[in-house]
Write a structure and sequence with these properties.
The structure holds two protein chains of two kinds. Chain A is of the alpha+beta class. In chain A, 35% of the residues lie in helices and 15% in strands. Chain B has three domains: 145 residues, Aldehyde Oxidoreductase, domain 4; 189 residues, Aldehyde oxidase/xanthine dehydrogenase, molybdopterin binding domain (Aldehyde Oxidoreductase, domain 4, 2-Layer Sandwich), CATH 3.30.365.10; 319 residues, Aldehyde Oxidoreductase, domain 4. Classes of the chains: A alpha+beta, B alpha+beta. Bound molecules: FE2/S2 (inorganic) cluster (2 copies). The site of one FE2/S2 (inorganic) cluster has 12 residues of chain A, from loops.
Chain lengths: 162, 762
């Protein structure tokens, strides 16, 4: 039997615009590989595709990284919330979340901010219904979603006026 | 203290917002620790039996891992909590599926999984008690002499109650049942333990109560106080779920760290967390009430039954709060409440936001609707006629000396939602409107706060910033923002000059646990005392420096004053003197209220320092064929004394209300015939999503309380008390079917419609 080391495969990923070369086991999910390499902003809330905490953009499309084999994400563009903004230079979406009080425990926040970014890129003028549908895969236990939806509306409004 | 700042009631950005929104906040599973090993748990597959032994398969190389069993424990085999009946690892008796039998630590996850798979427990199975009925029958006794984990009787003497019943025009009886609920904090439970060179241990984790964990570790490991440090990592939600369970996980991680000599991390996957962490106690509550024909209550008997699971955990305390809230927001001249928590061979139930009150408030709110129904008056009117007013007496004997918020919240919620004109008119559209009125006592019950005797310190640090040293934790509710607001208000400081970092037990005094809606009301008040002490100490330093006699410099209304001494604000003094004042510390300690009394033996007196009030109106649509519910609009009005940060307060109300509606409507968690949860994944245990969430209107009312800092009372738990009964009431309005059991699943609604109490034409 091959031991764990021998079975590892390697791959190159573009993560937040930087090229990365990592080795990992063939059955590893993208979530695990990202987290094992320091991308702990990608959260593990369930590993069954139900919570959205692990959301990343894969070639610009939102996907739960726990449902993607790392092997299939090789040579593709991965975006995590860190690409959006930093503490000192936050993205307008991040600003909107902070301003309206849409952040509580924060565990859902990276995923929801990314889902919002994906929505507003596709649809800068979303209706409430569009927002709710875009966020349906993103669970939050703290906020009751009221202020999250408000934050998305605010970010959309500001985006349009830029 | 006279309010000196203008920070209270303002809405600054939360202290932890940027870290969280940028993904930089480090939760326990995000910490990078060199040489880290992974810990896991071997668990029982049978609900009850005797552990004869654990054998190790020879094919596995055991030199690669460490294994800990009950025989390896350095101290007593107890997770110290309310009682000491909860073993760290099963030594002999096994009492629920999932009970920890052994622990393993390994250098990587694959080796850990292989080692756990190579341990084979030998458990001789015995008959198990899985339901409240079986526990009550007592044919099989699994705990104590009679399966009773805790029991209370409170209220008036039986004779007095019987006499009051004789004056009733009518007796109304009902039985109400609630199911399990999972907290579903989005971040699962997790803990890292690091062995220390002095033989001690340092634990960092996702937790609400650093000193609970600290004391549990001390007891289990037999270590002196100073050899243990417990730190809180950024915590992704708690809701009570990280009140008691982290003690178990911390002991397990610490044992493995000591056995392996390495840092060990134990983070539960969602499935493991759902299966084995604590849940809200299921309940059966019976009401028998004497009413006059005008709808006023004259006498009540309530019997409360909670399912505690296999061990005591927090059950006596949860049950006590449930019993004390059993008559809700209503005046009952003579009332008696009996309450018991029973043991079953299921995972121990524990603390959950509301702490017993959501169960008993569901029952009393539904019962008020039943009374309204039987007397032919509206649910709103029956509440108006009985709600608590100033001077009224609660069943525990407490007299409400201040104006309670009950009437205010009820009238405001009903007006906002136009309940009075719309109730009873929506059925033809397949919709209905439901109402609830509720109460929540802030802080620990009875003399609990006096026993905790909480401490807070404030210290002037580098750069003239004031650090709040308190064991209260930020878990999303906003403690790291509102405690600084209270401190800033007390000292007249701008908010950026004061902060409250995540606590560690080697740095902060014990302010008590972060539970029971006590952080603002109780810890905040101690903090104000610490600020006053700091100001007095600063005044003394100013006197010394100016060569003035003691008492000549005073601190009042945010200003230091003294003879021949220019008036100075606290900030001005800090700016000028920051280096000389560095390290100066003000100390605060819980100050009892001389006019409040509690008798633990008689279970009588002032059960809570003050109460917060809430009312919900829920509008629901019921699908006539699929029996499913859609939440249309929800109005939540709360009265909390004073909102320290209105935006965060609204967030607490919105989140708690949706969690309550999930409890009432969709969060269906049941056990199988082995005492295992049937819904053990996020795909089967459904919590509300953005699609399920209603249009939610939140309004905050304020009647300042003399019991909390600057008038503030408890808030965190209140919003979870009213959603479920208002939802059930709305379903009744929509369908005519009286709902007495939650969650109101499609199946259950169908069964209620077929068999239950209904005014539907059949
Ligand atoms: S962790 Fe991927 S959806 Fe929950
Ligand atoms: S803020 Fe806690 S889960 Fe969303």
């Amino acid at each position: 039997m091959l031991n764990e080391e021998d079975r590892r495969i390697t791959g190159t990923f573009s993560v937040n615009g930087r090229s990365r070369s990592w080795s990992f086991s063939p059955e590893a999910t993208l979530l695990h590989v990202l987290r094992d390499h320091g991308h702990t902003e990608v959260k593990n809330g369930c590993e069954e595709g139900e919570c959205g905490a692990c959301l990343v953009l894969l070639d610009g499309k939102p996907v739960p990284s726990c449902q993607v084999f790392a092997a299939t994400a090789r040579d593709r563009e991965i975006t995590t919330v860190r690409a959006l903004g930093t503490i000192h230079a936050p993205h307008p979406i991040q600003e909107a979340f902070v301003e309206v009080g849409a952040v509580q425990c924060g565990f859902c926040t990276p995923g929801i901010v990314l889902a919002t970014a994906a929505l507003l890129r596709e649809n800068p003028n979303p209706s409430d219904e569009d927002i709710i549908h875009a966020l349906d895969g993103q669970k939050c236990r703290c906020t009751g979603y009221v202020k999250i939806i408000e934050a998305v509306r605010l970010a959309a409004r500001r985006g349009r006026h830029e | 203290m006279t309010p000196t700042g203008n920070v209270l009631g303002s809405t600054p950005r939360r202290a932890d917002a940027w870290e969280k929104v940028s993904g930089r906040a480090e939760y326990v599973d995000d910490l990078s620790i060199p040489g880290l090993w992974f810990g896991g748990t071997l668990r029982s597959a049978v609900p009850r039996g005797r552990l004869r032994g654990i054998s190790r398969r020879e094919s596995f190389d055991w030199s690669r891992v460490v294994v800990v069993t009950a025989s390896d424990l350095p101290g007593p085999n107890e997770v110290a909590m309310v009682r000491s009946d909860h073993p760290i690892l099963a030594a002999d008796a096994v009492n629920f599926v999932g009970q920890p039998l052994a622990l393993v630590a390994a250098p990587d996850r694959q080796t850990l999984a292989a080692a756990l798979g190579a341990l084979v427990p030998d458990v001789e199975e015995a008959p198990a008690v899985l339901t409240l009925e079986e526990a009550q029958e007592g044919r099989t006794v699994i705990w104590g002499a009679d399966n009773v984990l805790a029991a209370y009787v409170l209220g008036d003497e039986e004779d007095a109650v019987a006499e009051a019943f004789s004056r009733a025009d009518r007796i109304v009886e009902g039985t109400y049942t609630t199911g399990y609920q999972e907290h579903l904090y989005l971040e699962p439970q997790g803990m890292v333990a690091l062995p220390r060179e002095d033989g001690g241990v340092e634990v960092t984790g996702s937790l609400q109560c650093p000193y609970y964990v600290h004391r549990a570790l001390q007891r289990a490991l037999g270590l002196e106080d100073h050899r243990i440090a417990v730190r809180q990592a950024v915590t992704g939600g708690g809701f009570g779920g990280k009140e008691d369970y982290p003690s178990v996980l911390a002991i397990h991680a610490a044992l493995l760290a000591r056995a392996s000599g390495r840092p060990v991390k134990m983070v539960l996957g969602r499935n493991e967390d759902l299966r084995f962490s604590t849940k809200r106690h299921p309940s059966v509550v019976r009401h028998r009430t004497g009413v006059r024909s005008d709808g006023t209550l004259c006498a009540a008997e309530v019997d409360v039954l909670f399912d505690g699971g296999a061990y005591t955990t927090m059950s006596p305390v949860v049950l006590s709060r449930g019993a004390l809230h059993a008559l809700g927001a209503y005046r009952v001249p003579r009332a008696r409440v009996t309450a018991r928590a029973l043991a079953t061979n299921t995972p121990p139930n524990g603390a959950f936001r509301g702490f017993g009150a959501p169960q008993t408030i569901f029952a009393v709110e539904r019962h008020m609707d039943l009374i309204a129904r039987e007397l032919g008056i509206s649910p709103l009117e029956v509440r108006r006629r009985n709600l608590l007013r100033r001077g009224d007496r609660l069943p525990c004997g407490q007299i409400l000396t201040e104006e309670p918020g009950a009437s205010l919240v009820l009238e405001r919620a009903q007006a906002l939602a136009k309940y009075e004109t719309r109730h009873g008119t929506l059925r033809k559209e397949g919709r209905g409107l439901g109402l609830s009125l509720f109460i929540h006592g802030g802080g620990f019950t009875g003399s609990g706060e006096e026993k905790i005797d909480g401490r807070v310190a404030v210290e002037i640090g580098a750069g003239g910033r004031v650090e709040i040293l308190a064991s209260s934790t930020e878990m999303g509710q906003g403690a790291a923002t509102v405690l600084p607001q209270i401190g800033a208000q007390a000292l007249g400081l701008p908010l950026d000059r004061i902060f409250h970092p995540a606590p560690a037990t080697d740095r902060v005094p014990d302010s008590g646990p972060t539970v029971a809606s006590r952080t603002v009301m109780v810890v905040g008040r101690i903090l104000v005392g610490a600020c006053e002490d700091l100001a007095a100490k600063v005044a003394r330093r100013l006197e010394e420096a100016a060569g003035l006699p003691e008492g000549s410099v005073t601190w009042r209304e945010g200003t230091f004053r003294g003879p021949g001494f220019p008036e100075k604000s606290f900030e001005g003094v800090l700016d000028q003197w920051k280096d000389r004042l560095q390290g100066l510390r003000g100390e605060g300690r819980y100050a009892p209220f001389p006019d409040l009394h509690w008798d633990d033996d008689a279970y009588r007196g002032d059960a809570y320092k003050d109460y917060s009030w809430g009312a919900n109106v829920v509008e629901v649509a019921v699908d006539p064929d699929r029996h499913t519910l859609t939440l249309c609009a929800v109005t939540a009005v709360v009265e909390i004394g004073r909102a320290v940060h209105p935006l965060l307060a609204e967030g607490q109300v919105a989140g708690g209300t949706l969690q309550a509606l999930g409890y009432g409507g969709m969060e269906d968690l049941r056990i199988d015939d082995r005492g295992r949860y049937l819904q053990d994944r996020l795909s089967t245990y459904s919590i509300p999503t953005a699609l399920d969430a209603p249009d939610l209107v939140v309004e905050i009312a304020e009647i300042p309380s003399p019991r909390g800092p600057f008038g503030a009372k408890g808030l965190g738990e209140l919003p979870i008390n009213g959603g479920a009964p208002a939802l059930a009431s709305a379903v009744e309005d929509a369908t005519g079917v009286f709902i007495s059991t939650i969650p109101i699943t499609g199946e259950r609604l169908f069964a209620h419609r077929r068999d239950g109490l209904s005014d539907e034409p059949s």
